[in-house]
Design brief:
Length: 300
């Protein structure tokens, strides 16, 4: 299988002031999927413009035809499975079945307290995620769902006609630990990693490769444990959070070298950030476009 190259477009620009053009250009460049972040605000962008993920993806669906669309990632921090499922079914319908749900346990950033709650501990986030994913799986697959859990409830929640994609739209489950990987193996059509966050500040690219190799091997073991064919689970690397940071986007050769080392670990999709000037994702747009157009052919 050829490597799929995708991008993530942060929702920080007004739609008619550059927002729309990024999504249409992503399709023209041949990206497999264009994702966006599903946050209420995020890191250094907190005090600037930031738009909602689902409306942004809905608008993107209306100006593209082939490009797959998705979130990287949606989390329980401010989402409820019942309302999220209704929005996703609507988005899947509008896009003609081009939606992938990237989903993760969430973190301790601004989303964690925006609704007035205390931030959850890592264990609390994992507990909620373990309930969130299977409940969402049911809501997107069944016409009516009733459920009473520790964190979420549904009473005859109707989701007719369901997703265009059957039995539901695909999940790309982000996880770096065994508990989340089990959810990926049970419910995911893809597994997503950003590498080992502990290596971001002081690690080396070589240490990052070793850490990601360890994550992939753990996933293999879990797939065997739950009876999942590991070759049936796509593996997605969201770049920009390894010690390399944006170095792979400095040239076509640098990216091909970086991507090739991860393809050897079994990755089937690599996601690069759309360049944002004066940010951690700053990159030369001409080089970025060259990578989009030429790198996949070199990585077959």
């Amino acid at each position: 299988m050829s490597l799929r190259l995708s991008t993530v477009i942060l929702p920080y620009r007004r739609w008619h002031e550059g927002g729309r053009s990024a999504w249409t250009r992503a399709e023209q460049l041949g990206f497999h999927t264009a994702y966006t972040y599903d946050h209420l605000s995020w890191r250094t962008f907190r005090d600037g413009p930031w738009f909602g993920a689902v409306p942004t993806l809905t608008a993107a669906a209306s100006v593209t035809d082939r490009l797959r669309l998705g979130t990287l990632v949606t989390s329980p921090n401010f989402r409820h499975p019942v309302t999220l499922a209704k929005e996703l079914i609507s988005l899947d319908d509008i896009s003609g079945g081009r939606v992938t749900l990237g989903i993760g346990a969430g973190g301790s950033g601004f989303d964690a307290t925006a609704l007035g709650q205390e931030p959850w501990t890592p264990r609390e986030r994992a507990d909620r995620f373990a309930e969130f994913v299977p409940m969402l799986d049911r809501l997107l697959s069944e016409d009516a769902v009733s459920y009473e859990g520790d964190f979420y409830s549904a009473h005859e929640a109707r989701n007719i006609p369901g997703c265009v994609q059957r039995p539901r739209l695909p999940f790309a489950v982000a996880a770096t630990g065994p508990r989340g990987m089990r959810l990926a193996a049970r419910f995911g059509q893809a597994w997503v990693t950003t590498g080992d966050p502990k290596l971001y500040d002081n690690g080396t690219p070589e240490q990052s490769i070793q850490a990601i190799r360890g994550q992939a091997e753990t996933l293999d073991d879990i797939c065997a444990e739950v009876g999942r064919d590991m070759t049936d689970l796509d593996r997605v690397l969201l770049t920009g959070f390894t010690p390399d940071r944006v170095a792979p986007l400095q040239s076509l050769n640098a990216f091909v070298d970086f991507a090739g080392r991860h393809v050897e670990l079994g990755f089937t999709e690599i996601v690069i950030h759309w360049p944002i000037p004066d940010s951690p994702f700053a990159a030369d747009e001409k080089v970025f476009e060259q990578i989009a157009m030429e790198a996949p052919a070199q990585l077959r």
